Amino acid sequence: MPGHLFGPFAGEGASEKARNRKLFAMLKGVPMSKRQARYRCVIALVNAKGRELGVVQGTCSGYVTTKDIGKNGFGFDPLFLLKRYNKTFGQLPSSLKAKISHRARALKKFRLLLSRLL
Known about the structure:
There is one protein chain. The chain has helices at 16-26, 94-100, 102-117; strands spanning 36-46, 52-64, 80-82, 87-88. The chain is α+β, with helices and mostly antiparallel strands. It has a 4-stranded antiparallel sheet. A hairpin with a 5-residue loop joins strand 1 (36-46) and strand 2. Helix 2 packs across helix 3. The model has no long low-confidence stretch (mean pLDDT 91).
């Protein structure tokens, strides 16, 4: 994935590995109980005149691991541990991730918003 999705967290054009290494360095010595993390997806519906018609969000909470685990996904997925499954997003099959992710939760709410407006 292009670096612009994550901003210049580890420097402009930094690779996923570089961003992950920087996050690990920032959290060095921090116990797992204090490594809470959350993915958040926000979707806004705005009409052609710029009027906001609704905003929804979905979140998925987990923890930042101490090492990369898994090859699926992108970005921080191999570091994002979901305690419920005892797996990282990088270990989960995309079919499950598509049902439980922050994006899936936001899209479910967005569909409800659209159905109310139509």
